[in-house]
Write a structure and sequence with these properties.
The protein is mainly alpha-helical. Helices cover 77% and strands 0% of the residues. The protein is globular and about 55 Å long. It starts with a helix and ends with a helix.
Length: 202
């Protein structure tokens, strides 16, 4: 998937598309987070967790470009049928990664600090609110970049398709958060313990 993102970066350079270059570069940077966390901070990043993060970045990168030579547009807006679901899938998956980061950190503090106790149901609420706050900031970022692009007469690197689309994005972000809130403990225990140790709580 990382090699594919490098390929998409070159597609953006060949097309002279700032949007593709920025999005592919950003996604490629995200795929480097797991090895950096494991190497520099000694956080255990098992293959499933790494695949989870990399897949979220990969699908967004591919979605911005489409498949060169096979599609006339990107998967977010230019391919019938696919466009209807691609945005929902990527938002749910990306928000689940954000939720996982929040969950692992909150659980680390809760489990390993004597001064903090958070009931499980309250942790689920915190994660949901954390993701919704992040989602609102992201939508504001998309809106701001779109306005700036219009003002300066340049192409926007992020696209917002209207209020209805924004509301659907928030719904699917919430779905990703709920999935992590319900099942995060099964997959994120080791990394929560490692975060606690790095914070000096364990």
């Amino acid at each position: 998937m990382e090699i594919s993102l490098v390929g998409l970066l070159f597609v953006g350079l060949e097309r002279g598309s700032v949007g593709i270059i920025v999005n592919a570069g950003m996604c490629l940077a995200v795929t480097q987070i797991p090895p950096i966390l494991e190497r520099d901070y000694e956080l255990p990043m098992d293959p499933r967790l790494t695949l989870w993060i990399t897949t979220a970045a990969f699908l967004h990168g591919v979605g911005v470009v489409g498949i060169p030579g096979l599609t006339d547009g990107n998967f977010y807006s230019g391919v019938p049928v696919v466009s209807e679901y691609w945005d929902h899938i990527t938002h749910a998956l990306s928000s689940s990664v954000v939720a996982a980061a929040g969950y692992a950190t909150v659980r680390a503090v809760d489990e390993h600090s004597e001064d903090v106790y958070l009931p499980p149901k309250f942790i689920a609420v915190i994660i949901l609110l954390f993701v919704l706050a992040f989602a609102v900031l992201w939508e504001l970022l998309e809106f701001g970049i779109g306005v700036a692009a219009t003002e300066f007469g340049t192409a926007s690197v992020l696209t917002q398709y209207g209020v209805y689309d924004t509301l659907k994005d928030v719904v699917y972000n919430s779905i990703g958060a709920v999935i992590v809130a319900l099942w995060g403990g099964v997959y994120l225990t080791d990394i929560s313990d490692a975060i606690a140790e790095r914070l000096g709580l364990a």
